[in-house]
Amino acid sequence: MAIAIVIVLLVIGSLVFHFVSPWWFTPLASNWGSIDSTINLTLWVVGIVFVVVNLFLAYVIYKFRYQKNRRAAYEPENPKLETRLTVITTIGVAGMLVPGLFVWGQFISVPEESDLIEVVGQQWHWSFRLPGKDGVLGRTAIERVNEKNPFGLDINDQHSADDILIKSNTLHIPIDRPVKVLLRSKDVLHNFAVPQFRVKMDLVPGIVSYLWFTPTKTGRYEILCEELCGIAHYTMRGHVEVDSEPDYQSWLTKQTTFAQSMEMASADINKGKQLFAVCSACHGVNGEGKVSLNAPKLAGLSTWYLERQLDYYKNSIRGSDKRDIYGQQMLAVSASLLGDNAIKNVVAYIQTLSYIPTVIPENTNMQSSLLSGKKLFNNCSYCHGNNAQGNYAMNAPKLAGQHAWYLKRQLQSFKTGTRGSHPSDLYGDQMSLMSKTLHSEQAIDDVIFYITSLENSE
Ligand SMILES: [Cu+2]
Asked: What is the reported pLDDT for 458?
């Protein structure tokens, strides 16, 4: 008897939850209303079956409950009932699946007039490529991916030069035009999903998958990776902005083509040297860093990392937080790096500086710190490399050789969100997450002590 009541309450509870729950579809922003309809249809069919079967169960439990003088009847076959149940189930299942097949048919037939976009996934961010004026994407291969050519484009393919490369995590698309999205992964399985568009598809290394949709509402929508793709999976986010045609065109004209990115004037080291005169006041003439001025070591850091940080400072992505008193100094300095090539030049000059090893700070508890630090560093090495030498593929800079006090401050800044929480900071989230795995000041000190001990193991 009690169990029958529990079942009835369960059914009522489920229904109430369904109708009052705030967790429902996000507002639709694409042509895929038919996907909502199939989901709704499925929900209705299984919902009705759920209610009917459970209420029937409760009824039967009640009706045929134990009574002293009652005996069960044995009825092994009932062809009429079985036929009826088979027919009803078949209709229910077919009713659920058939509309889905039609929608799937539409989903895989891309309209011919669609625009083309390539979305590239990697641990843990998105980048995008447009075909440019010729409307054809240039050939790519993973083997060609390097620091200068992050998309791995084939320079000899005539379609490559005008391809537009978008290295930011925000993609713009024009409203009311169907778009075919080609999906490619550089490393592991990812999944491209934008809830408001009702489309999602896996990115599989080695093949190009696709989906299509027509955006119907302007606005900013989040791109999620819906495939568990490694430790920083949850930070793999981006945005799609659906623009009106004029807004889209004005965005488009600001993007760089593959040819432009390759032909960037080679850096002028002499000009870089002049620019560095200002920097050396704080960072030292050899970029060795100065504790008295809180300025870190720059020598030994990769070109891509230095350029990115200067770019971040210049665009107030790093150093604009009010609590970031050291970053603010750099924000001011970076404003003096005028013109596209200033950053390139000064970074090229930094690469020529002689490398002065950093003095490793005293540690009274050396053995235990090294042990605990090494253990903690296991988490870090996946991105920063086993010897903290840095890893371009993960966008993670070299840490070995850096001053301990600077590393410590950065970890604390990531932890408090002083660094890394700006929406345009592509990799900051990853470090915010990682810094939180260091629970105490002792843990921070230990891992840093271990990192500084790696200085000469490269
Ligand atoms: Cu992913």
From this structure: 43
